[in-house]
Amino acid sequence: MLLLSQYVEPAYAMQLLETHPEWVGYLLKERVSDAAVLVDTLRRLSDGETVIDPTIVSRLLGRHREADPIDELSAREREVLGLFAEGCSNAAISKRLFVTERTVGWHVKQIFNKLRIAEAPDTNRRVLAVITFLRAPT
After folding, report:
1. Residue 120's CB: how many other CB atoms inside 10 A?
2. Beta strands at 51-52 and 2-5: parallel, antiparallel or unpaired
């Protein structure tokens, strides 16, 4: 079975592969304008191969490579970062979490390291951390 699509939809390709793991193809219609590509695809399908458009493969691989740095944070670090987002100081965070300010400071340092937010004179690392937090997929 060969599916021709005008849409770059990795989710459709994944669904196709999950239901029919072999003898299937998913190509973008623009690739079929070259008859040699179509003939090669049909030959490969008849040999039992699976053929997925290179654009779809790139998107699927890219999705896995784009790890969200928030995922690297521990549950406690996420909690501290959430309190950053509420505007809490280290002292306020320590009171809310029933830990010492020193412990909060250690979590803050770990958050900055894991989010790769370097100290710089012209930036506020807490604000950058909150922006990263707010942009993260839920």
Report:
1. 9
2. unpaired
Q: How far apart are the first and last CA of the chain?
A: 36
Q: What are the CB-based long-range contacts (under 8 Å, 24+) for 4-8?
A: 4/28, 4/29, 4/32, 5/29, 6/30, 8/55, 8/56, 8/59
Q: What's the pTM?
A: 0.53
Distances in Å between the Cα of 67 and the Cα atoms of 63, 115, 117 are 8, 11, 16
Task: Sketch out the chain's domains with CATH numbers.
Answer: 2-65 (no CATH), 69-135 (1.10.10.10)
Using one digit for the tens of pLDDT, what is the confidence trace for 109-124?
999 999 999 998 888 8
